[in-house]
Amino acid sequence: MPSVVALIPARSGSERVPDKNIRPLAGHPLLAYAIAAAHQAGVFDRVVCSTDSGKIGEVAQRYGADVPFLRPAELATSTSPDIEWITHALDQLDEHYDLFAIVRATNPFRGADVLRRGLEQLLATPEADSIRAVELVKQHPGKMWVLEGRTMRPLLEQAHLDVAWHAGQYQRPWIFLKATTDDGAVGWAEITDSHGSPHGLAGIVEDLAPHVVGRDPRAVERIVWDLFRATRQSPGSVIQKAIGGIENALLDLKAKALGVPVYELFGGPTRDDVAVYWSHCGTTRARAWDVTNTPKLASYDEVTALGREVVERGFKAFKTNIVVPGDEPQVLMPGFGGDGLDRNPSPELEDALVRLLDAFHAGTGGQAQPIVDLNFNLTAEGVLRIARALDGRDLLWLEVDAFDPVSLAAVRSGSSIPICSGENLYTNRGFRPFLAAAAMDVASVDVIWNGFHQAKKIADLAETFEVNCAPHNYYSHLATFISAQWCAAIPNVRILEVDVDDVPWREQLTTSVPEIANGVLTIPSGPGWGVDVNEDVLREHPWS
Questions:
Q1: By mean pLDDT, which of 99-113, 167-181, 238-252, 365-379 is the weakest?
Q2: 523: nearest Cα among 500, 499, 490
Q3: Is 146 within a domain?
Q4: Are 108 and 10 in contact (CB under 8 A)?
Q5: Which of 212, 244, 338, 380 could staple 451 via S-S, CB 3.0–4.6 A?
Q6: All residues at 6 or more sequence positions from 49 whose CB lies less than 8 Å from its CB, including other chains
Q7: Do residues 226 and 357 share a domain?
Q8: Smallest Cα–Cα separation from 280: which of 493, 474, 481, 423?
């Protein structure tokens, strides 16, 4: 029989629920139930509690666990990977164990029988090096499993999916709009909705169709203004995304009919190529490595290796998010979901970003500038704290989403790092108060959500305030072609966003892919957007 140690993690630093590991339940702290289950299982040679708190350590000892050491504070943060405290614990023990088990105090209903069965199953499965207990998770049915002999299968049928059901939280459906004329000509647009209502957006397009169908598609601006009038009391958001998609599909039709790229309709080209940066660098490998067939961001060494890859592939800049590598890597997005509503800063979050950028720098050697995208994840106070923590790390910019121009202007005035914002804004009316308040150094303009012409109006307005623009481009290759054409129609471009890591079949979804070399994209010169959507591939990957 192999020797086995039970490791019970119980850090003190939960901001949302202080001392959660020793909160009382039926007269005893949660920690007590984990210790009791480990002892009652009868399979462990030792039960050890790893904590950074003397208070929690005393509780653990009172209920029968060993606490031979206290965990260092740097290994007990909200972003500390399991592998770090586990390695520390095993190194601190005087004796060697063949196996270890993590028994978490925050699951007090995992009993001794589960622990016994887990070890028995592991020993009976020589091809496995680890096993994980799985309970009913009714609020997440995609995480529920059915035992079939020695293996498990998902409760929900997933054979028809390209990605497991429970991984879908990290996936966004690409949404395309197709406009077809009576003679069979086709114009394409993308209207992917990252955070909102994909079904609702498709419904809005159907609702607006009567204002478009049967009309001369060449009168693009007139049609767009009729759509503005029809939706005047519901401006922005998914309404604007639908209007932007209709505008872009009509522009593609018109330019194809004339045999010219779309930028020729707006006096272009202003350039033949444009610099690009690698977006969601590390982010995708932390939350969707399995569906993109990329290495999992399992450690900071992996971050350093990714930094080397950025330089080797010719990129001079890259963008990342609040990413914490580990066995179960995290992308922290409190502004979009999860526990708590407050969007408060914390030393742990600041330290996580500092450590992430230092690991990237070890790989890039300073040959590629980082961008940190904070999205809506912090209030103005938190953004300023992050800006001060990251000062001196040569950021190209700090990206922040905000609804208030005055608070964003205060952030900009208090930061030595340039501020980029605007991806959540619609039309020049939305950008005007931010530009007037001097709230941004770079305007992030979403070309597929605003529509090409409306986005050009934003760039023209930004130019009068001496502000450059960078397309927000988190979509398929079609959107990259559209954004590249926009860059060729305006004089004030900073750099273009592109995603490198994505599902493998993205490369077959369009009739061609962007031409990128040494961090520079060649502006497409074919009629329309210079690309079409492969409808056969589209049909192979439906979303519902």
A1: 167-181
A2: 490
A3: no
A4: no
A5: 244
A6: 8, 10, 31, 35, 56, 57, 60, 61, 65, 66, 67
A7: no
A8: 474
- For the chain, how many structural domains are there in total? 3
For tokens 């086995």, what's the residue?
Answer: 4
Q: Which backbone phi and psi does 484 adopt, to 5 degrees?
A: -65, -40
DSSP annotation string for 307-357: HHHHHHTT-SEEEE-SEE-SSS-EE--TTTSSS-S-----HHHHHHHHHHH
Query: Do 497 and 277 meet the contact criterion of CB atoms below 8 Å apart?
Result: yes
pLDDT at position 170: 45
Condensed to tens digits (0 to 9), the pLDDT of residues 222-273 reads: 999 999 999 999 999 999 999 999 999 999 999 999 999 999 999 989 999 9
Looking at the domain assignment, is residue 535 inside a domain?
A: no
> What is the arithmetic mean of pLDDT over 129-133?
69
**Can you give the pTM of this predicted structure?**
0.72
Residue 93 to residue 69: CA distance in whole angstroms: 9
pLDDT, residue 421, reads 98
Q: What are phi and psi of 63, to 5 degrees?
A: -100, 10
Task: Find all residues with CB under 8 Å of 312, minimum gap 6, and list them.
Answer: none
Quick: pLDDT tens for 48-80: 999 999 999 999 999 999 999 999 988 987 667
Q: With respect to residue 360, please indicate whether it lies within any of the assigned structural domains.
A: yes
